[in-house]
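Subject: two folds for Thursday's group meeting

Dear M.,

Sorry for the delay on this. The cluster queue was jammed most of the week, so I only got both jobs back this morning. I'm pasting them in the order they finished. Each block is the input sequence followed by the predicted structure tokens. Could you check whether the formatting survives your parser before we put anything on slides? The first protein is the one we discussed after the seminar.
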Amino acid sequence: MLKVGIIGASGFIGSRTREIFCVENIAQVKAIARSSSSLSHLAHTNLESCVADALDTTSLENALADCDMAIYCAAGSPWFLKQTAVSTYKAAEKARVRRLIYLSTAVVHGQAPPVGTNESSPLNDRQFIAYNNAKVWVERKLLQLSEKGTTEVVMLRPGIVVGPGSTWITGFANSLLSGTAYLVDQGQGICNSIYIDNLVHAMRLALTASDVNRQAFLVGDAETVTWADLYQPIAHSLGTDLSQLTNINCPEFTPTWKEQLREGLKNSNLLGSLLHFLSSQRKQHLQFPQQPALNQEMIWLYQCQYKLPHQKAQEQLNYSPIVSFEEACDRTKEWLASEGYPLISA
């Protein structure tokens, strides 16, 4: 059986990947996270875990030493993503990992990609959003490192990852309860969603697919989902009608000077480490996420008019979503109820 090291195993995506791989006996898993506290809940299980700093090549190399494959699904600032892309690949190569699955993002194409966009569309590293630029930089760097490297690289580009534990779900639910939830253009923009279990399924396929080295794949749900489609089941379960929410019509949106400054600083390699540290400290105290504030990034997301295709993943990975959007909504509502949200009866 393959042994897979999951880097970022304590996060939303990493946790679910770890759980499914273990329950379905897909692979022997080593959970890798940056702190012992984030792995403390695994102390009473038989799951192998390891503390390693993704910024430290030696630390990661030791963690991956006995792994056949690795999955990178850690989250962080633009600076963190750039730094850890290099350290992760070098560590994987030194540890003789055969393949690295890197979780990229669909927003390398922008939050509102043009009609016809697919994996062959040229990437732009001069976008307004620093996160997008960082992910483009990472993909290019991984291709450069793997060109002469021994560790294969497969990059997955999911869109909005939803389901139990997703901050897109809890943030909207919390905003509904606090009376601050809103819609943009009645929620009619396309949400390029992917249910968490569908993403894990794509990662599973990417581990063993043939002839996919140095390839990138868009992955998403089967259905075309609008933001209203995503939010409606949550609102209904909490006794709210979407039509009651504040609606913002945004044909045009000009970023504030603060937003322009913030994104500019995030793009800076010089100040990136400081901003990463400050944002990490704030996140430690964030217990109840809210719907993201309306800014340029969210405007573009909410106004997207194109569903990204996953035809390439279907052809080369044999990817097909295993959970329908309707089933995903039902599972998400069940999870919200289990977390104590005051859902009403159907």
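Second protein, same layout:
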Amino acid sequence: MSEVALVPCESYEEETVYQAVRAGMALLGGMERFFQPGERILLKPNLLSKASPEKAVTTHPAVFGAAARLLREAGMERLTYGDSPGNPTVSPARAAQTGGLQAVAERYGVAAADFDHGTMVSFPQGKRTHSFYLCHGVQQADAVLNLPKMKTHALERITGAVKNLYGCVCGVKKAAGHVSFPDRMIFAEMLADLNLCVKPRLHILDGIVAMEGNGPSSGSPTPMKVLLFSADPVALDSVFAALVHLPPAAVPTCVAGAAAGVGSMAPEQICVLTQEGEMTVAQAAATYGCPGFDVDRSGSSHGKIERLMRLVPFIQTRPQVDLKRCVACGICQEACPVPGKAVHAGQGKKARYDYRKCIRCYCCQEMCPAKAISVHRGLVNRLLSGK
């Protein structure tokens, strides 16, 4: 059985979060179960872009600080942190500063790891890929504590523990990965390999205020008031999916992760630990879940209908720009990984797409600072997918 601890938490007040994280770790056996004094421990938050904490784009500094404080109290002294933002114009340091993590890291003596540079790391046992261009900060760590944010995701439906590891890949190599793995299931299989390569010891999901709708950066903050803890990222993401009434079987990262042996997806293989006692996944969803959470529940992420929709252009999903919101900043063009670019903008010109080139990776939507890009599903698409 994979264990996922669930602790409710009402706010980001520092001491409230600390006590909740402490309670969650106690349910799993404490930090000492996962880390040893003397090890170089990397805290890996979600620092997708330059965003203030209240926008729910990044891991909240209160959650990051609580994890660092508990590690210090457990005798862990060699702590670092970092992430590689998806926006090529934003440095890891700038994202950490704007997100409030830099000040908290300085308070607890957590040094910034090198996420500006990286080298290729061989992973011959991978099923989808045999190498990763990993940041030096990841390679220099003995152990990784993953600190993802509970959010929706245009490509993978949700982003949690499994998806957050993509920030271990350095800089522009992340965008290039979408060209190499242009399908949501193929991309999820690559993420499964990445999780097996990096092997985080522990995952703590910040779901106190989550993001629904047009995630992972342009959605709406919404209170979920939970923290999830697990050594199994697939089980954790499966509980996350259940809490928002999304079948884990519709989440590509859960399906690919379970198939690759990263973790367990089946509810009968997951035990939810709470301070009130053990629960099934269904009981946790009934007690702590939100059936109205705005997430894509259309069809199956790996079924025949979706494969058909990828082959027929007029029923494919695609990114769509709201020209009233577009500020002609050009970030969507910079984020596009396609040679020759599938979207053009900047220098006073608003975004326009060449859908013949578009691979539906949604990097443009993910990085748009004006929340001007969303995923469009036409009528035929919605009828076929059951939404």
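Two things I noticed about the second structure. The chain has two domains: 2-288, 304-385. The chain has a mean pLDDT of 93.

Cheers,
T.
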